[in-house]
User: Fold this.
Amino acid sequence: MTAFHSRRPIVRALVGLGGVLALFVGVMGFAHTRAGRPLLALIGRAVHPGSCPLGYDRKVTPRQREEAASHWAASHRGTAPAPSRPALGFALGQTRRADVLAAMAAHGVDCGPGAAADLVCRQVPALMLSDTAGGPARELWFTFGARDQLLSLVALSRDSRPRAISEAFSLVTAQVTRAAGPPTNQGGEAGPAYLAAGALRQSSAEFRYSNYYALARATNMGNGYLLTEEYRTLAD
Amino acid sequence: MSKVISLIAVALSLSAGLACSDDDNKTPASAAPGAALKCTSSGKDAFDTYGAAAFVAVNEAIVANVFAELGANGTVNLGDSFTKIGTGVPPSTTDPAATFKGKLAAFLVYAYGGPTSITYTDGVTYSGVQDMVAAHAGLGISSAQFDYFIANVVVPALTGSGVPATDVSSCFAPVVTDPTFKASIVGK
Assistant:
């Protein structure tokens, strides 16, 4: 009987807490329905102005992006430094957004903020990227840091012919090898015959250095061939 | 070592869930997109070839690759659809992350010839028969983001889990490279 009396406040507290939690879940659930949008906006303005109150749809600041990249670098860093850090003619850690825009405008290439990328430039001819960059035209996705410096560059290029993508893959791999050093990981086989042998066949080369990361990956997409290039500066 | 034990545990858990499934639950050959595909290595469909443990490993690898990608590049390459999981905005993202992962596993198992539903590692039963258009409604996924996801997240998850290139091409690729499948996800 005593024990029953002593447990009652705890039970009341738990029930109260459960009620509050249920109310919170209910309100948040309703706020995310179409009818509840005004409520969501109201909560959002109070917590994260103009956005989801939990902050999932917040734009990441350049500073936060640098921190995330630094965290990622910890698990992808190699041991030796690369003597040079090629990135399709752009200087990782130095090139600024205005430099990219000016270079692209000079060649009549349109760039703009992508749905999520800092800057997206489409149909960039290989010849304007560097003296030695071959292959098809590329779509470039740039990411910039807090000082507006280039943090990473991703390039996508497509072609219906396996030879075009395979040769571009070999060229990129050779260029990075010459400038930075040999690949630290390789997958698949180089050559158009290997790529063409089946959908989702891949040839890949990864370069992990202490100050630089690069990746080249040729993929048979079933309805064409895709080359992904990734160039990244690794912060200390 | 703990990772191995953990993998074995989740594999056993999934296997147990599948073991509890009714035989009638097995995908009819005509229903699932990948059930009719035969892996070069075995002459059987992907699920019969690799089994529950491998599908758990691939599913976990896909999710890990997504997080690694978001950690490295934020939403630059994949877009912001994965960061909306659990927010409910748009409504197709209402499921929390654990549910999303379970549904993805169930879809993969079903799509590649396994049962229509599974009990995943969290003990919850998920249906693999899913409406791709509804699942991606309002996300605005671009063709480039889809291709990046397949080439740089899904394929490395398969090959990194030990699926040879010949089987990737023969019994996994046709489902995700099918234009109709892509059209059900892109631009919604």
